[in-house]
Amino acid sequence: MFRLQTRFLIVLAALAGFCLACPPSRAADPVNVVMIISDDQAWTDYGFMGHPDIKTPNLDQLASESAVFRRGYVPTALCRPSLVTLLTGHYASTHGVTGNDPSPKYAERGSELYNQRCAQLISYLDRFDTVPEILGQRGYLSHQSGKLWEGSYQNCGFTHGMTRGFPKPGGRHGDDGLKIGRESMQPVEEFLDLAHESKKPFFVWYAPFLPHSPHNPPQRLLDKYTDKHPITVARYYAMCEWFDETCGELLGMIDDKGFRDNTLVVYVTDNGWIQDPESPKYAPRSKQTPYEGGIRTPIMYRLPGVIPAGERPELTSSIDIVPTMLAATGSEIPKDLPGLNLMPNLTSGEKISRDTIYGEGFAHDIADIEDPEASLLYRWAISGPWKLLLTYDGEVNRYKSTHPRDEKGPQLFNLIDDPSEETNLAKENPDVVARLAKQIEEWYPVEKRKTIVTPGASTDR
């Protein structure tokens, strides 16, 4: 496999600061990593995030023991590109997997051309060193369960796992891996026993198909919510609690097998979801969209005795998770990763010295798998209270109703005063729009797609 060039070990002041914060015995021990990835869950839908009805006692407990970023984000609001970001540490515009599927508009599903394009998308992973590959170089065992779009678990660098992957039957996004949590936690438990017996450090990718549809929770959980909510909402709420129960099982295994004190637990959601009360589908401005309902998620880091528990007020992004996990394990961090290694900040409590995070939105159907701009719909930046959202003219194909793009001009929201993004303040704050639009263009220049960056103007580029 072709891999990115030159790597160097990050042992500069940042990582040194992390090591100095560790007890001597901890600094000498490999740190295990457990990544918990929720699938289609709103940032509000947890007890610890203040939801009045949804019960998430296990994640509430995890939050009480973690550094919690309530203002966490994923750069893309769609599962496949979001998950590839968690494997590689790169934005979708860099790793190339911008949507879930090649557009069936240009190649019929199941045709030879369509399958070739599916294989080509998966091959983009070969350009990067994935997290399990990097950890494997240090002797880590790794286990995949749940969602995985990029072929088999071995193709992604995991030593163990469940997904057979494309082109196997049902291999589009996880096949056998999707059974985890919904049917059993046994595969993960068996892997943890193996790691314990082998006396090797481990990495667990727990990305269950939860609370993702189909919303078919156990009746005992559904019964808790049907009296107060429409059945579609009750089902979704019960799915959130079901997911929480599986997280409790996983964290209980970590405790029971003696791994707790030397295991970094990371929590994130791949993308948001707002339940439509009148149908099983998602409501507008949630999944796939660049609004808060699509991209915002709590992000948590727990490493007992090393990362102090508490609320972190700063902005953070899932783009930071890969370098942070690698730093915690003492692994080599690829030099071209755009995210921050947060370990020095997590251990010391010092404020993160970054004032802006970025994201991008692409269509579910990839119009041109070799040109990310062909499907570019949005770019955004968040700085302090401000969020600027720019809309682009990329091709959508399916899911047109999800992306009406009625507002073609810049959208500026004060997220502190208006977290539901009801009032566009672009006309009243042209200086903020200009500043953030310039930063977006410097972050990721586009050459073909057009947008409007001046309130009330026609297309600027």
Write a concise keyword list for the protein shown above.
14 helices; alpha/beta; disordered N terminus; 15 strands; about 450 residues; globular
Structure description:
- The structure is a single chain.
- This protein is an alpha/beta fold and 461 residues long.
- Helix content is 28%, strand content 16%.
- It has 14 helices and 15 strands.
- The strands form three sheets. Strands 1, 2, 4, 5, 6, 7, 8, 9 and 10 form a nine-stranded mixed β-sheet that branches. Strands 11-13-14-15 form a four-stranded antiparallel β-sheet, covered by helices on one side.
- The radius of gyration is 21 Å and the shape is globular.
- Residues 1-27 have low confidence and may be disordered.
Query: Count the helices. How many?
Result: 14
- What is the SS-derived class? alpha/beta
Task: Please give the share of residues in helix.
Answer: 25-40%
Arithmetic mean of pLDDT: 93
Radius of gyration: 21 Å
Percentage beta strand: 15-25%
Pattern of helices and strands: HHEHEHHEHHEEHEHHEHEEEHHEEEEEH
Termini distance? 39 Å
In terms of per-residue confidence, which ranges show pLDDT below 50 for 5 or more consecutive residues?
A: 1-27
- Total strands: 15
Indicate the overall shape.
globular
* Major sheet characteristics: 9 strands, mixed
